[in-house]
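TA notes, week 10

Several of you asked for a full example with nothing omitted. So below is the full record: structure tokens for the whole chain, then the designed sequence directly under it. When grading your own attempts, check the secondary structure regions first.
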């Protein structure tokens, strides 16, 4: 399980709970104190903000459960999956790229990281070295060949 991702998500969850339990109720109370609630835009905005944060809370709790349940030992040893380092050849441009397949929360602008939930990342997951992969992206279909694959078991 990627502990650093859990730490990041739990910090975000703590901030959302702080907002829901302290900050937003204060905003709602302050706005409600301004009088007629039927025409109080600030009150409506505070309620909408509360709803948004409640949805975010549910999403974060679900994501934390998903990440916590990730069992590295059960990831495939010969197919691309989370943590794999994949070298691919773009069959149209003849360019080579090497990526590490990561969770979306691990991207942080790192140019050699590729999210497993991106179109190319999803297409690579489950593939083996030597496979040709076709990916539908907004710009059209891209074709790649997997030149080299090191799974998390090889790179760890």
């Amino acid at each position: 399980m990627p502990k650093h991702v859990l730490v990041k998500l739990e910090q975000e969850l703590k901030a959302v709970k702080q907002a829901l339990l302290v900050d937003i109720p204060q905003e709602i109370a302050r706005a409600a104190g301004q009088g007629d609630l039927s025409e109080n835009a600030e009150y409506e905005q505070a309620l909408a903000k509360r709803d948004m944060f409640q949805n975010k809370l549910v999403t974060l709790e679900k994501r934390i459960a998903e990440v916590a349940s990730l069992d590295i030992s059960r990831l495939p040893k010969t197919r691309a999956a989370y943590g794999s380092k994949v070298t691919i050849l773009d069959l149209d441009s003849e360019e080579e790229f090497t990526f590490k397949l990561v969770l979306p929360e691990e991207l942080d602008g790192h140019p050699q990281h590729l999210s497993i939930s991106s179109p190319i990342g999803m297409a690579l997951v489950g593939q083996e070295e030597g496979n040709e992969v076709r990916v539908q992206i907004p710009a059209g279909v891209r074709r790649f060949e997997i030149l080299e694959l090191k799974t998390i078991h090889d790179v760890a």
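The helical segments are 3-32, 41-68, 119-124, 152-155. Use that as a sanity check on your answer.
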